[in-house]
Each structure stands twice: as C-alpha cells, then as structure tokens.
Write a structure and sequence with these properties.
362 residues; alpha+beta; Umud Fragment, subunit A; seven-stranded antiparallel beta sheet; three-stranded antiparallel beta sheet; 9 helices; 31% helix
C-alpha cells in the first residue's frame, strides 16, 4: 500500500511528462485543417495550382536545336478529402441532430454566420447543411459546437419526444445548480430506498481466479489494520449490487457523514478497491488519518476527493468534500495520510438482512 507522499510524487512526475510531451507535439504538429467549406476551398485552390512541370534536361540534347531538349512530366493531382460529404436528401438521424443544433443555436442567440466565424468549422452554408441534415456531423464537429453553444455533447442527441427521461435531461440544461442538486438528492434517495445494496452469502469457496463475493468490513473496528498490513475483520461476505467486475482487494464498507453528499449519502454502503494503483490525485478515495481524525465524524477513516496542486514550486495537498457546506482538509504532512482504497460505486443504504444458503441473519 502506497503512502500519500508516494502518490503525490507520481502525480508530479506525470505532470512533467505531460508538459514535455505537449512541447514536442507543438514542434511536430502540422498545419491545422478544419472540416467544412474552408477545406473544400483549399482543395479547389490546390487543383488550380496543379500544372504541368517542365523539366529541362541538358544531358538529353538529342534532336534539340539549342543544345537542350525539353520533356514534360505531369504530377499526380492533389488528393481530395471529403471530411463530411453533402447529401442530396436529409439523413434521418442527421436531420434530427441538425434540428437540435439549430434549436440550441437560436437559444444561444447566435446567427449561422456568427457561429461559423467563432467555431471556425466552415462557412455559413456549411453549417446550414448541418442543420438541415444534409451533412453527417462528426464527433469532433459536435464537440466544437457544444463548446461554443455552452452545452454538453449528449444534448445534441437528446430528443424530448422520446420520453420522460429525455425530457428530464433537457430540462436539466435550463435548471439552476441548486435545482439540479435537489433533484440528485431525490433520485439518490429514491434509488437507496428501493434497492438492497448487496446480498449476504456464505463464505465463498475458491474457484480459481474468479471472485464471486467480497468481504463486508467495519471501518470503526479496522483502525490501523490497513496501515499495519493486518487482516481486517470480516463481518460477512456479500455480493454487491453493482455493475463493477469483482476482483481481489475489493471490499464493502458503510460510509458515515454528509461531506460527500449527494454522491455518497450518510450511511451508504460503498464498494471500494484497493490498493490504489497509479496516481490517486483527482480520485475519490478512502483515506486513513494516521495522526489526526476526520473533523466531521471523528473517525480514523474518511472518503474524500484527493487534490494535489503545485504552484510556483509549492505543493498543496487537500482532501475535498462534494458538499459545499464542508471546507477542504489541508494536509500539511502527506505522510500523515494513507490512501487505502478507491471508491468504485455507491451501493446505497440497507433495509433488510437477507442471506442466501443460511438461516441466520446478519
């Protein structure tokens, strides 16, 4: 298990590699070619420049009156690349996407000409073809349009007439951050109220490399066990109701506190995977406080998002909460914190105790 200091060192090394790679790419990057009408115009210019080369060869002078002969060689014409071919009739899906592009553009108060100029995707006519479904848009084109229209990529393919879920997604675009947070709380609570987080099973037998169940551990009784490499007491063996593929090192534990709401409601059972491989910065992790306690719960363990920033040679390590009511935890000494595992999924609260293959309950 790596200490937080080791994870921080990996993070800084990765940043140095990214900066070096970016510098190399800037030196090697060729001229930028955008799709659309501007690409077509450049191709037309290349064809106009295409000409017959006249090569004077003084060595082959046979039959020449002035001591030299001329021979002509014709270069191959430039290759035409049709990034997004224009259709004679609208494509059904492209037409629906085009209608959404037009709807979002008008909502943003942009004209075709202004959007074409700001996005550098081509001419006004090219964007008009996009909106009419005469051109099948690429993912890159939609990404650029989403950026300039201030929307998410999936919103180009969100059609309200497809049902309540699509209508809800479209309504969220115009909702305030507070309204979205309230909706997430309701949806999370509803999911937790209608689904059991796991199924309790007898201790699984070893079946090769396949993991069929994971231990349910009590973090309040595990203080120091992860750090010292001791076996953590297993309360039960469970099959978590999660789409994640089970593997060695996973376990389920209950998380207390409100700092990570709405993602992790108080009292939720969560699936964790340890040890954390690679760079832990930016991930939501289970950390063990070696010299202090979590300021909210007073326990040795807490779930937070790890942040590592370097500014003017000074390193800043923080444990961030999702709930804005909780301030970040400043980590002065990285060795005082140990990253135990990464949060894989939130399973929800438990309502009843069910056991398969055994009569007693947990």
């Amino acid at each position: 298990m790596q200490s937080l200091a080791a994870h921080v060192a990996q993070h800084e090394l990765a940043q140095d590699r990214v900066e070096a790679r970016a510098g190399a790419n800037d030196r090697q990057r060729g001229p930028r070619i955008s799709d659309g009408r501007d690409l077509e115009l450049r191709q037309q210019a290349a064809h106009r420049a295409w000409q017959v080369d006249v090569v004077v060869d003084n060595e082959d002078a046979e039959g020449a009156h002035d001591g030299s002969s001329r021979r002509t060689s014709i270069r191959d014409p430039p290759v035409t690349v049709n990034a997004m071919p224009r259709r004679e009739a609208p494509d059904p899906l492209s037409g629906r996407i085009g209608e959404r592009i037009r709807e979002l553009r008008l909502e943003a108060g942009l004209t075709l000409e202004k959007l074409a100029y700001e996005s550098e995707l081509g001419s006004k006519g090219h964007l008009s073809d996009l909106e009419r479904g005469l051109v099948q848009p690429t993912v890159g084109t939609l990404h650029v349009l989403a950026k300039h229209l201030g929307v998410h990529l999936f919103e180009f393919m969100t059609f309200r007439e497809e049902g309540p879920r699509a209508e809800l997604a479209d309504l969220s675009r115009r909702a305030s951050a507070r309204a979205i947070e309230r909706a997430l709380r309701v949806l999370t609570s509803d999911r937790a109220a209608t689904a059991e987080p796991f199924e309790i099973v007898p201790r699984p037998r070893k079946q090769g490399a396949e993991i069929t169940a994971v231990p349910l551990v009590d973090l309040t009784a595990a203080a120091g066990a992860f750090r010292e490499g001791r076996a953590v007491e297993t309360r039960s063996w469970v099959i978590p109701h999660s789409n994640a593929r089970l593997r060695k090192g996973m376990f389920v534990a209950v998380v207390r506190g409100h700092s990570m709401e709405p993602k992790v409601p108080d009292g939720s059972y969560c699936l964790f995977a340890g040890p954390v491989r690679g760079i832990a910065a930016g991930r939501t992790v289970l950390v063990e406080h070696r010299t202090a306690a979590d300021p909210e719960t007073g326990g040795s363990y807490s779930v937070k998002r790890l942040s590592v920033e370097t500014h003017r040679g000074r390193r800043r390590v923080r444990l961030l909460a999702l709930n804005p009511e909780f301030a970040p935890i400043e980590v002065a000494d990285p060795d005082s914190i140990r990253v135990v595992a990464e949060l894989v999924s939130v399973l929800g609260r438990r309502k009843t105790a069910r056991r398969r293959g055994a009569s007693r309950s947990d």
